[in-house]
Write a sequence for this structure.
């Protein structure tokens, strides 16, 4: 595993030197390098998925260490920042911000619905963008939901899962949080498709990234206590909730009984069975798409 990650790091350094790539915060577009890193890391995780005693979580030792690191960063920085944001911005303002970024994401959601062979849902997503971008004043108001156009939750990780790509290794990334190998690759594609990343004005682009990140963390504040009280092992609880939620999303809330990937036609990267967890798990990770997401039920964010 260490050798694989070392090769990935060296390859990225060579590419960076050859292309003069500069990441977010500069005037050079950040997307291509980010996607290469995620794709290479995702491949490494797929190869590493055969090791370890827990087939559902072969990198558990590493994952627990990163999970603890993320918890520490959240405690000293991210959570206080989100609490300050929640205190400073009134609820209508936070709902408008969440709606705005939700509207930005609806177009890519529609593309994924189309790729998954669901043209009717894709048409609904396009309709939502048109209505909310006009009558909803740039997406600040979710008028589309009021007229009966349902909000969907799709990303490229789900699209790959829909067509038979299995989970692969489960991994916890620094700051970003939990992903599977499949969802790591999907996350790279989602980042590439994110309209915010195509803004040429660096300050505006980074301001939108930051606002979306803080708004997302603030939306998770009500679930912190519930997760802490519902689990003796928070890491295992979040992992199982994440895997169960992702499987549910792939099947649009109607997953078949049985093994998770074994039940997905063509699933080839993982055969680990699902662990049953409490109903509170429906709060965990409704969506991560280009940095946006919420642990709140969708109705509470409209």
């Amino acid at each position: 595993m260490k050798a694989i990650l070392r090769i990935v790091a060296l390859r990225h350094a060579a590419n960076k030197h050859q292309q003069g790539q500069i990441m977010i915060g500069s005037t050079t577009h950040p997307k291509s390098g980010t996607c290469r890193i995620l794709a290479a890391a995702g491949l490494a995780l797929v190869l590493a998925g055969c090791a370890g005693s827990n087939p559902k979580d072969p990198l558990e030792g590493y994952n627990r260490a990163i999970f603890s690191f993320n918890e520490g960063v959240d405690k000293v920085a991210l959570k206080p920042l989100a609490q300050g944001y929640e205190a400073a911005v009134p609820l209508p303002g936070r709902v408008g911000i969440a709606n705005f970024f939700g509207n930005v994401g609806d177009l890519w959601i529609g593309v994924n619905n189309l790729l998954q062979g669901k043209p009717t849902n894709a048409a609904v997503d396009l309709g939502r963008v048109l209505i909310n971008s006009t009558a909803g004043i740039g997406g600040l108001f979710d008028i589309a939901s009021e007229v009966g156009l349902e909000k969907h939750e799709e990303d490229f990780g789900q699209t790959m899962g829909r067509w038979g790509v299995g989970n692969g290794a489960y991994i916890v990334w620094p700051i970003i949080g939990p992903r599977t190998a499949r969802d790591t690759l999907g996350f790279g594609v989602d980042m590439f498709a994110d309209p915010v990343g195509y803004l040429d004005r660096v300050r505006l682009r980074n301001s939108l990234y930051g606002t979306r990140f803080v708004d997302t963390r603030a939306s998770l504040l009500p679930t912190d206590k519930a997760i802490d009280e519902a689990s003796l092992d928070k890491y295992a609880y979040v992992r199982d909730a994440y895997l169960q939620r992702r499987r549910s999303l792939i099947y649009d809330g109607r997953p078949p009984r049985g093994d998770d990937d074994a039940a997905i036609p063509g699933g080839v990267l993982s055969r680990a069975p699902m662990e049953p967890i409490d109903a509170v798990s429906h709060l965990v990770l409704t969506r991560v798409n280009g940095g946006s997401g919420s642990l709140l039920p969708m109705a509470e964010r409209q």
